[in-house]
Sequence to fold (365 residues):
Amino acid sequence: MVSDRSEAHEPDAELSQDELVAKFLERPCTLAGDMCVTVRGFAAEAEAVAQKLGRAVVTYFQILSRFMDLSRVERVIVAADYTAALAEVDRGIETKNILVATKDELMTGVAMTPAVLRDGVLRCQVLLDANFVIAMLERDSLPIAVSDDEFKEMGEQAHYLIAHEAGHAHDQAVIDRQLPGWILREPLRHYESGAALTSLSEYTACRLSATFGGGRETKNYEETFAKALATTREEGNRIIIAYRTHADLSSFVNEFIPLYTRLVKAYSYLLGHLDGLGQRIEDAAPTAYQAVQNTAWFTDLAKRWHEALQQGWEIYGTWKSPEEMYMPLQRVFHDVLRKGGIDVQPRPDGQFYIDIPFTVETLPG
Fold:
């Protein structure tokens, strides 16, 4: 079995290529015997391409399963109709929430690894937008009008994207093994828990998959975070000002908390990737580092957020309770929201009071 905190290691320079391959193949394949790959949404005339893509994905998962614990992966779905494929996932539980890809001015979701329940056993499915993994194939069979260098970069990004989702599958397996009966069974009872858990999930997946990517991913994560940091406070103030007028607390919460969740999640992507590569943010992502230093309200919070993520990694897979896993981040996120302009205050009866104090920046007009 691979380690819970699986991280790629430098190859032994004294071994030949054949010896390295043989040593790698000695690692156990962690894929379940009933795992399958489905390719869907392709036109009939592209059936041959779809079959090739399916075989390429299977082979790559067999490789990844020797680095990560992919024993809970039930199915991999490579979908040309990605939106429809997400909506049709059977989670194995009663829910009104249909899976929808992230799509805003900062992020566009092209892959997802939702947890599912099968006869009380936690499994997961990996869904991939076929348009973003098609470059795993040889380009001579594909009508893609890009240069050779661009196609090579697309292929590298496809392999990294899949490795990142495999990191999520590994993470779910570790959590369910250590905290059985929690994922999909126990509801979250706090506004701030979701932000902590989603950020922790992305940090872990990015850290596990970092060595499957490279500088391109660093740049993407850096740019996304820098844009989020530049716009979050102003957009948050706009939401508060609108609330002063319409006084719809539910609508306010559904806009404001996801906005700041997006910020810390974007930061967690970047930090996980850099920590996985053993790099410092000031060296590898100087634009993001300088943005943090120039944003007074976030500078100290950014430091505390990174410390909480790193401390969590030190105890990864040894938690005695879900709270031990996510509470350190939740406490920091509570202060992030306070700096943003709201204070979530729990009540003894399990309910919450949200205080939105008046400030110069959030007064109408």
Remarks:
- The chain is about 55% helix and 10% strand.
- The mean pLDDT is 92.
- The first helix runs from residue 17 to 25.
- The two ends are 61 Å apart (CA to CA).
